[in-house]
Amino acid sequence: MEVKRICQWCGKPFMAKKTTTNYCSHQCASQGYKHRMRERRLELRELQELIEVKSKLDHQDYFTFAQAAQLMGVSRKYIYKLVKEEKLRASRISARMSIIRRADIELMLKTRPYERRRVKDDLDITEYYTAEQIAEKYKVSQKWIWAYTRENHIPKIRIRQFNYYSKKHIDAAFAKYKTDDALTEWYTPEEIEEKYGMTRVAIRSHVYRNNIPSKKEHGQIFYSKLHFDLSKQTAEDDSSEYYTVQEAMKKYNLTKDSVYGILQFHEIKREKKGRFVRFLKVEFDHIMGAR
């Protein structure tokens, strides 16, 4: 097996004989290995230096801005920002020297606990649905709402422990599922199975081919009774003029190959209806009568 890859060291394309090959030659593989080892040694050295610095800082009560940044794991620029905004207290010793007490850092952390950002006061909450309102209006489960809004990036806000979803986006999403209000009678798949002896796959295929209106409520699918009965009645009336291959085989005691041979030899027009091939009875009966 050959796979086209890009060398991770030199960047040139090459044909790899294994899916795990990352380098085009032994030389590039050696250079890549040495580079990884150098990077690993540098990371270990930086980690060791950081541990040593932190161990030293643990025994100090006064810090420079750079040391305070190392202790808190932030940048020195951020320490300056905290001091400028008077969130963190610092003392200037000289024109070039300022220090921060450990006690002031701990005081800042104590007096400023974490608070979740809240929605602005001017937000119009009437432009949003709760999950319960969506479930009641559109007859869906709250689990479906969570999955659908996340997958389709529906805008939402969170106030305390509740999610609120944009009305405009939710209504637009459900507009494509809207059905005619005049339709009042609906079949469940179980009722269709019992009445017409169809499987679930056959029902879905029939609904798709005949564009039958459907709706979904609380996870249950429904199909328009009027449209389904009409499509089945039309199909039955139409099928009375046609043979399927199986019906022709049974009536004239023929094999499947013989039926297809007759259709092809006499150029009888045939069509595909669902998973069945059918053709006009009058044409086939005429050929069989002549035979």
Number of DSSP-assigned strands: 14
| Radius of gyration, in angstroms, nearest whole number | 37 Å
Percentage of β-strand residues: 15-25%
Q: Give a quick account of the main beta sheet: strands, pairing sense, barrel closure.
A: 3 strands, antiparallel
Q: What separation lies between the terminal Cα atoms? A: 58 Å
- Class from helix and strand fractions: alpha+beta
Strand order of the largest sheet: 3-5-4
**What shape does the CA trace take?**
elongated
Enumerate the spans where pLDDT stays under 50 for 5 or more consecutive residues.
Answer: none
Average pLDDT score: 80
SS element count, helices: 13
Helix content: 40-55%
Strand-and-helix sequence, N→C? EEHEHHEEHEHHEEHEHHEEHEHHEEH
